[in-house]
Amino acid sequence: MSDAALAAALAQAAGQLLIDVRKSGLIEGKALGKAGDQTANQFLIHALQHLRPDDGLLSEESKDTEERLSKERTWIIDPVDGTREYGEARTDWAVHVALSIGGMAEIGAVALPGLDLVLRTDQPAPLAEAANVPRLVVSRTRPAKEAVEVAKRIGGELVEMGSAGAKAMAIVRGEAEIYLHSGGQYEWDSCAPVAVALAHGLHCSRIDGSPLVYNQRDVYMPDLLICRPELAEQVLAEVQDIHA
């Protein structure tokens, strides 16, 4: 099985596990989110250790080690991206499975189990036509100040949404044009979404235009821009002007 097919199969299976855990009705709220995280994480970790034993591995839900730093290939996973949305039975949560090669987000899949959908790097679809008024996806609870300001400057509309993966896939799926985040994330929040977005022809970078680099010792990633390529130059220029 190819790496891309494996990423997609694992993301889909983990998503189904999460749906089943929630459907059991035995737990709810924060306890449900914790149980879902642990269940999906154990499945993904054991599967990757069995199927790709020579690769590095980084998961939000497992203790990090330095072993991955010497690996050219490292799997970066987020078993439940958007735990709150998962617990609330919303659709804007995701499962991320990515393979970083040489520090780049090369291969991956993002499952949106609430929509019974998996977006993957080996099956890109043509981008939908952009809306006349640019739509910027932002957090439901803490929209990035740069995103709010850029929306004002370019006459855009803000669209509130849950997880990072759901926001990124909204751009891939043509539900919005821009995902600008500056509130801080970690490598597992964006590696799979960036891999999928790049495969679909979207622009992906830091908000200063520099590349996104993965499998670093410090896995904190301060900011992110995923957008339609024709909007990238304008958005980056506006962010630079805001910070000037």
TrEMBL record:
GO process annotations (BP): 3'-phosphoadenosine 5'-phosphosulfate metabolic process; sulfate assimilation
Classification via Gene3D superfamilies: 3.40.190.80, Fructose-1,6-Bisphosphatase, subunit A, domain 1
One of the record's GO molecular function terms: 3'(2'),5'-bisphosphate nucleotidase activity
Binding residue positions for Mg(2+): 60, 78, 81, 189
Cofactor requirements of the protein: Mg(2+)
Entry keywords, A to Z: Magnesium, Metal-binding
SUPFAM superfamilies, per the entry: Carbohydrate phosphatase
InterPro entries assigned: CysQ/Inositol_MonoPase, Inositol_monophosphatase-like
PANTHER family linked: 3'(2'),5'-BISPHOSPHATE NUCLEOTIDASE 1
Protein known as: 3'(2'),5'-bisphosphate nucleotidase CysQ
